[in-house]
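Data card: per-record layout.
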Amino acid sequence: PSAIVQEALHFASLHGHIAVASFLVECGADVNGVQPVGHHCALPLLQALFTGVRDHMVEWLLKMGADPRLRDPKREQTALEFVVSVGNAVQEELVRRVERERSGSSL
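The structure for this 107-residue chain is written out next.
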């Protein structure tokens, strides 16, 4: 994807704009794409988690294939490490559930 499309996905993720994000993904934006300059986080998933109130966006990104195990190169944390560090229990459970589902674990 172009850098502009990828950067726009990061802004849409930060602000919880699913319709915009969906359009950008259709245009080639990568839900696991890194955008290290000018943002709080380098991955769209961590951008959405960063606000602490974008659960709908987090769920959408995860549904679209965002990998919660990727380490954000700017924050040097995975999604789970980030939500644990900020104490967001709702988002922590969401990320843990997706990780369990993807690993096939019942733990």
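Known properties of this structure: The helical segments are 3-15, 18-26, 44-51, 55-63, 79-86, 89-103. The chain has a mean pLDDT of 91.

See the next section for split statistics.
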